[in-house]
Amino acid sequence: MKTSVTVLGLGAMGTALARAFLAAGHPTTVWNRTPGRSPELDGLGAVRAATLTDAIAANGLVIVCLLDYASVHEAIDDAGLTEKVLVNLTNGTPAQARSTADWAERLGAQYIDGGIMAVPAMIGGPAASVLYSGSSTAFEQHQHGLAVLGRATYLGADPGLAPLHDIALLSAMYGLFGGALQAYALIGSEQLSPTAFTTDLLLPWLTAMLTSLPRMANDLEYGAQPGAAGSNLAMQATGFANLIQAAEDQAVSPEILLPIQELLKRAVAAGAGDEDLAALLPHLTR
Ligand code: NDP
């Protein structure tokens, strides 16, 4: 017998979550603030609750995926959460997750926070991953059901851990994509093909460079070997000026790169010129 589940919020992501539960045979009750959203779910067997209170009352496992935490608190008042397992897959900060966990637990619920590392089309497929933290009892009870959404990784009892990792991964992604946008702007400034550039040069380059991340992580954890830097920061700071100047010359804004240049300059001025990129980290933490 598959666990019955309630999904609150039928935006692009909530709809994908409900679809995945239905496809895996979980009886699924859905609710959305604006009624009638995602009508295709009705044909897949979803039960549409008339009110949010009815939706929460319908099942012990309640998944919420709204725009932000303010929406979650606005939508779910203090009624009906007693003895429920509330799994909040809304994107938010560690502090928001911790205070929402306190709120839910005061109301008698077990709370799990989650970070969805996927876009809606990936949900239920092999590339989808969802990070969880919070009540270990509730996670153990529901991990098989939650696994229908994507690979389920439990990060610990502190509810802030899933959003912390989620935000860390998104920060890395935006940094990478921001850099790719800068590259496309430069290529575009000479009317060159972004598709050929991507296939022939950008993807192989990034793939090769990403292999240096484990070494950087190792340096951060255990300390870099003195004199081991193959690409010292003083050299990188000098070369980085060319990234800024070339952008200006090509009528491309260097605004995405300027904060990295500032960081490099600060680190070199503080005496880290002989070290490698990992030496930037102390200049990034407050
Ligand atoms: P959408 O904009 O498609 O949907 C937003 C949902 O939030 C709708 O169901 C909307 O209801 C509801 N909502 C907004 N404000 C309120 C409120 N005050 N009270 C009740 N319901 C409200 O967003 P997504 O579904 O794409 O995203 C949902 C969450 O999932 C976000 O936190 C997002 O960051 C996260 N996420 C999304 C990803 C994506 O690629 N889409 C990827 C990973 C995470 P209504 O229909 O009534 O407006």
TrEMBL record:
<feature type="domain" description="6-phosphogluconate dehydrogenase NADP-binding">
    <location>
        <begin position="5"/>
        <end position="153"/>
    </location>
</feature>
<dbReference type="Pfam" id="PF21761">
    <property type="entry name" value="RedAm-like_C"/>
</dbReference>
<keyword id="KW-0560">Oxidoreductase</keyword>
<comment type="similarity">
    <text>Belongs to the HIBADH-related family.</text>
</comment>
<dbReference type="InterPro" id="IPR036291">
    <property type="entry name" value="NAD(P)-bd_dom_sf"/>
</dbReference>
<dbReference type="InterPro" id="IPR015815">
    <property type="entry name" value="HIBADH-related"/>
</dbReference>
<keyword id="KW-0732">Signal</keyword>
<feature type="domain" description="NADPH-dependent reductive aminase-like C-terminal">
    <location>
        <begin position="158"/>
        <end position="282"/>
    </location>
</feature>
<feature type="signal peptide">
    <location>
        <begin position="1"/>
        <end position="18"/>
    </location>
</feature>
<dbReference type="InterPro" id="IPR006115">
    <property type="entry name" value="6PGDH_NADP-bd"/>
</dbReference>
<dbReference type="InterPro" id="IPR051265">
    <property type="entry name" value="HIBADH-related_NP60_sf"/>
</dbReference>
<dbReference type="Pfam" id="PF03446">
    <property type="entry name" value="NAD_binding_2"/>
</dbReference>
<dbReference type="InterPro" id="IPR013328">
    <property type="entry name" value="6PGD_dom2"/>
</dbReference>
<dbReference type="GO" id="GO:0050661">
    <property type="term" value="F:NADP binding"/>
</dbReference>
<protein>
    <submittedName>
        <fullName>NAD(P)-dependent oxidoreductase</fullName>
    </submittedName>
</protein>
<dbReference type="GO" id="GO:0016491">
    <property type="term" value="F:oxidoreductase activity"/>
</dbReference>
<dbReference type="InterPro" id="IPR048666">
    <property type="entry name" value="RedAm-like_C"/>
</dbReference>
